[in-house]
Write a structure and sequence with these properties.
Oligomer: single chain
Helix content: under 10%
Order of helices and strands: EEEEE
Radius of gyration: 19 Å
Number of helices: 0
Number of domains: 1
Number of strands: 5
């Protein structure tokens, strides 16, 4: 079951949203309210881990990821 990141929606510009994770089936609709407080929430879209392959001009093996590149 995937884990999704949600954020509470602030009422004013001075407030900061609270981030939290919830596991739920991927076919379920995103939640609209915090399960404990009832505050309005929205699902946050985040990028996953992306690995890139070396191009043809690269002479060595490379795996670039979130921690940087290695040779």
């Amino acid at each position: 079951m995937p884990t999704y990141i949600y954020e509470t929606m602030p009422n004013t510009d001075a407030e900061v949203g609270e981030y939290f994770e919830i596991s739920q089936p991927k076919n379920d609709e995103p939640l609209a309210h915090h399960p404990e407080t009832g505050k309005p929430i929205r699902r946050v879209i985040v990028a996953g881990n992306i690995l890139s392959k070396p191009d043809d001009s690269d002479s060595g093996d490379c795996c670039c990821g979130p921690a940087g590149c290695c040779r």
